[in-house]
Amino acid sequence: MYMMFFGSSVLLLVAMAVLWSIFQFRRGRWLLWINVVLFVGWCLVTFIAARSIGWEFVRQIFGMLMPMVFSPFVLWFLFAKKADWMRIVKRYAVIVSWLAVFMIVFQIPAFPTFATYVLCFGVPILVFFLLYVWEKRLAGKWKRGWIAFVSVILVVVFIFGSLLMNATALNASGDDMVMDWGGGKDLGMKPELDVTKLAGPKETAVTERFQFTAATKKMKVPDGSTKELWLFNGQMTGPAIHVKQGDVVEVTLTNENIKDGVTIHWHGYDVPIAEDGVPDISQKAVAIGESYTYRFKADTVGTFWYHSHSQSSEQVGHGLFGSLIVDPKNKPDDELDMVAFVAPKYIDNEGALISSNEWPKQLLKNTKIRLRLTNAHNKPQKIVLNGVPFKVAAIDGNEVNQPTNVEGKYVQIPAGGRVDLTFVMPNNAVRIFDAKDESGGWVFQSERKSAAPSKEIPEEAFQRESYGIKMNSGLDVSKGFDREFTMVFDSKLAFFDGMVHHLWTINGKLYPNTPMLMVSEGDRVKTTFVNRSYSHHPMHLHGHKMLVLTRNGKAATGSPWWTDTLNVAPGETYEVAFKADNPGIWMDHCHNLDHATNGMMMHLQYDNVYTPFSGHTHE
After folding, report:
1. DSSP characters for 62-87?
2. Is the predicted pLDDT of residue 41 greater than 70, yes or no?
C-alpha cells in the first residue's frame, strides 16, 4: 500500500505540474478543473493510505508538500479577476509544482528538520515575492531569456548540490550522532568495561578446533562462468562448523591475501562482544599475513552462519561465508540434515541455491529430512518446496512450538535469515528451488521413479506470526519496558562514484550520525521499526534475539517468534522486544549489505562499555 501511495503521489504531482505549465501558453477553465480533480484525487489517495497503513507513512509526503500543492489554487481564487496578478500566479504555480515534484523524488527526509520546513514553506513565499519584484519592478529591464537561463542554472546547481551534500554525509565524523536513551535514564557511575575483556572461554576449555584461511581463488560459479572468489579454505561455501551443544569452539582465522582485511562474525549467535568480529568495535580487521582466534561456547542449538564483517557488502558477496550448525546433545539419529545457501548476487545474481555438502539425488521413502536454508543474498528470497507437505521447524535457529503442515505456500527468507524445513520423504519426487531461479534447485527422487513436481510458484506466503502454538516466550513484558526506541527507515539520493545512488536513512540520519541506542544491563527494551522507504530492510541486531510483538499493529498469536534478522517490508511496522543481557557495543543494521554500506547502520551500546578501537565500523 505504501508503494502505491508513493507512486500515485509522484504521478499525480507530475501531472499537476505539467498542467500548471500548460497554463502558461493556453487558457481554458477545463485545465484548472482537471488540476482540481487531480488535487482531490491526491487527497483521496492520502486518506485511503492513512486509513490502511497509518498516518506515519503519509505525513512525510502529504504534510510537507500540501502547502506547496494547495497554494496555487488559493492564489488563483484570490487574484482571478486581476490580469496583472494572474501572470505572477501562473508563473508561481509552475515553479512550486515542479519544486514539489523535486522534493518528493529527491529531498524529503524521514524526520523533517527545521531547514526542510524552511524549504517547504519558506521557498514558495520567497518565489512569490521574487516573481512580484520581477513583474512589478524589473519587467522590461531584464530580458526573459536571461531570467530563464539563470533559473535553469540555479535548479541544476540546487539538484547537484543536494546530491553532493547527501553523499558527503557518509563521510561524516560522527560528531553529530546523538545518544538515544529511549525514555530511560543513565543509571549513573558504573565500573567501565573494555570490549576486549568481554571475551569467550579460555583455550583450555576448547573441545572443537578449526583453522580458516581467507584467500582468493578462481572457480566456476552456478551460472557456469568462472570468477575470482574470496573463500575460507578455498571452499564455496566455507567449511561447515557442525558441533554439539556444550562444545567450546575455537576458530583461528588467517588472512592470506584479502587486501582490506577480514574478520568472522557469527551471525545470529550471541557470543561475547570480543568474539563478534566487527572491525573497529570488537577487534581490528585481520590484515594480510596476520591471524586472529575466536572462542565461544556453543550453548544454543540451531542453524546459524558465519561471514566476514569487514567490507561485508563486498566480502560476503565474493564468498566469505559458511554454515554454523549446533545440534542438541541428544539429536535423533533418523533425521537427515541438508544445508544450503541462497547465493550472494556476485556469485549468482538471481540467488541460486548452493549446497555446502553433496545432496543425494535419491532418498528412501519415509526418510526424515531437515533442510537448513540460509539467505546470503541481499534481498528476501522465495523458497518453494513442491511435492510434499512440510513444516517450518525453526526460524533463525529458534524452534517453532508444535509446527503444522504447510502446503501451497512459499517461504520467504530475509537477507541474512535462516529457516529449517522438515518433511518425510514420500513415494514420489520432491522439488526445492528459489522462485527467482526456477531452472536451479534440487529434485529428490524416491525409490519409485516419478515425474518431477511442477515449478509452479504459490501465490500465498507463509505467515510466521500466526504459525505454531502459543507458549511462554521467556520474556516478561507485562510490566512494560525500561527503554523504548523508534527506528524509521527512509531513503534519499546522492551523487558519488560517478553515479546517482540511493542512501538509506534511520530517523533521517546516515551512519555514522545515526542515533546510538543506549541501554543498561537488565533493561527490557522495545523497538518499533517503521519502513517508509520503497525497499525491504532485514534488520539484524548483533548479540541479541528479538521477540516479535506485533506486525502492522496486530499481535503475534502463534509460537513465540524469536529472530535476529527481521525483514521489514515497505509500508510495514513491527514492534519487537529483547532483554539487554549481553554487555557490549553491538551493531544494528540492515542486512541488505548494500543498504548498510550506504548509511543504514547504527549501534546498541551498554552505558558502561567502551571500545579501545576507533568506534567506526567498516561495512
Report:
1. IIHHHHHHHHHHHHHHHHTT-HHHHH
2. yes
Indicate whether 142 pLDDT > 60: no
Residue 496 binned pLDDT confidence (cut-offs 50, 70, 90): low
**Which pLDDT band holds residue 285 (cuts at 50, 70, 90)?**
very high
- Residue 283's alpha-carbon distances to 191, 194, 197, in angstroms, are 21, 11, 11
Cell numbers given for 613? 578501537
Residue with the bigger pLDDT between 619 and 162: it is 162
Sequence-distant (6+) residues with CB within 8 A of 269 are 296, 300, 304, 324, 397
- Read out DSSP for 485-525? EEEEEEEEEEEETTEEEEEEEETTB-TTSSPEEEE-TT-EE
- The x, y and z cell numbers of residue 365, run together, are 521413502
**Nearest to 369, CA basis, from 396, 341, 389:** 389
What is the number of alpha carbons within 13 Å of residue 62 lying toward its C-beta? 22
Paired with 408 in beta bridges are: none
The alpha carbon torsion through 299, 305, 307, 309 (nearest 10 deg) reads -60
Per-residue cell: 2: 505504501
Burial label for 504, CB within 10 Å (0-12, 13-18, 19+), is buried
Q: Is the pLDDT of residue 615 over 70?
A: no
Specify the DSSP element, H or E, that contains 565.
Answer: strand 565-568
- Ordered alpha helix ranges (H), 262-421: 312-315
Residues 534-549, mean pLDDT to the nearest whole number = 96
Cα 73 from Cα 57, distance rounded (Å): 26
Q: Which three cell numbers stand for residue 587?
A: 551493531
| Polymer length in residues for the chain | 619
Kindly provide the residue ranges of all beta strands, DSSP E only, lying in 56-204, ordered along the sequence: 179-180, 193-194
Give the distance between the most distant pair of CA atoms in the chain. 92
The pLDDT tens digits of the residues spanning 311-361 come to 899 999 999 999 999 999 988 788 899 999 999 989 988 888 998 777 888
Alpha-carbon distance of 299 to 246, in angstroms, equals: 5
Is 307 labelled as part of a ligand binding site?
yes
3-state secondary structure of 191: coil
Q: Are 291 and 252 in contact (CB under 8 A)?
A: yes
Q: Which three cell numbers stand for residue 459?
A: 501465490
CA dist 163 and 63 (Å) reads 23
Q: Is 242 annotated as a binding residue?
A: no
Q: How far is CA 383 from CA 223, 392, 431, 459, 507, in A?
A: 19, 12, 11, 12, 32
30 by Cβ neighbours in 10 Å (0-12 / 13-18 / 19+) ranks as: exposed
H or E element in which residue 41 lies? helix 29-53
Render pLDDT for 47-96 as a digit per residue (tens, 0 to 9): 898 887 777 778 778 888 888 899 999 998 888 888 778 888 888 888 88
Q: What average pLDDT does the chain have?
A: 89
Q: How many helices (H) and strands (E) does the chain have?
A: 9, 34
* Rg over CA atoms, the chain: 28
> How buried is 334 (Cβ within 10 angstroms: 0-12 exposed, 13-18 middle, 19+ buried)?
exposed
Strand order in the sheet with 226-232: 226-232, 208-220, 248-255, 291-297
- Cβ atoms within 10 Å of 311's Cβ, excluding its own: 23
